[in-house]
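anyone seen this seq b4? input:
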Amino acid sequence: MSAPAPVELVPGSGTPRFTIAALGDVGVIGSARARTAGAGMDAAFAVPAATLREANLGFANLEFPVAADADVRPGRSREFRHDASVCGALVRAGVQVVSLANNHMMDAGVAGLDATLAACSAAGLAVAGAGRDLAAARAPARLVVHGLRVVVLACTQAAPEDMARADRPGVAPIDADALREDLKRWRAEADILVVSAHWGSMYVDYPHPRVRPIARLCAEMGADLVLGHHAHVLQGAERIGRTLVAYSLGDGVFNCRAGDFHAQVSAQKRLESGVFVATITDGDSGLAIAPHRLDDDGLPLPPDAATVAAIGERVRGLGAGLANAEANFASQSAPALLQYGFEGLGQYVRQGRLDKVVRVLMQVRPRHLPLIWQALTRRKGASR
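predicted toks r here
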């Protein structure tokens, strides 16, 4: 299968030094797991593999742990786990390094983390962003590719109980001071320095206002590339100084119907996917996307010209909209996030999941109130 022609997002210049192909959130779960049990796990990655294999380095965010049903923690979805075969399939598709720094990696606790680390090691996947203690979680993946030293750091926003500590396994948190320290330490030992960040708000087109200061910090400290994920939709990209920033890689291979309920917020946008390709040069590095769509089980479909053009044009437009990112986030995210919150509460009430209801309500913070108010007033105005 040939790779789709990439769509340029951030123009580059100069002599190419290195290429990185990045796939977003990977979740071969639910009905996708059932399909791959028959067709084979490699079938899930056949479409993005065409682009991943052409790059010097392939990256993905492994969203869920390798685990058994019995290992999933109370209050977490039993479907949010991977079979170990996903690791080998990623390698065969052209991925050499994965981020484990995300809000689901600890869904199966320490047993799931240990099983994930073991499965990745057995498959030959380098990992970053989670470990048996905070030092291990903050340790980057280090590779030598075509004679160049590549360092990949990974961090995430997640529940406090999932965060690694000096004496506790978990994921590496997004912390400005720690990130500054890590970037300073590893910049001197890297020819190519990459940051993977699981950040922002889900299902919205623009990065949360807390995200862009972290991106600017990465640029200030000399990162070559920042790869964002967690939004589950594609977002725009930009260059800050010499640093390329892709704010959300979207869902790479991901079954969004699995879990406690299938959210309808941005349901069609979540099926828009692709592989981001960064070309690091001796001048201004450039970024492109090789678009594809996902089917209802979250498996990539072979792209046609219309799909490539439509998705590419939308992501380019979102990049242009980053000039007014905060205003766009406020106007577009408020109703979407409120809809998602109400949808989730309704589902949990109908399911009798009072633990989930309490958990959702406990996630509301004072900083969310302006967005909730804006969403309510927008809904009221629209109903007149």
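The longest helix spans residues 325-351. Confidence is low (pLDDT under 50) at residues 380-384. kinda curious what u guys think
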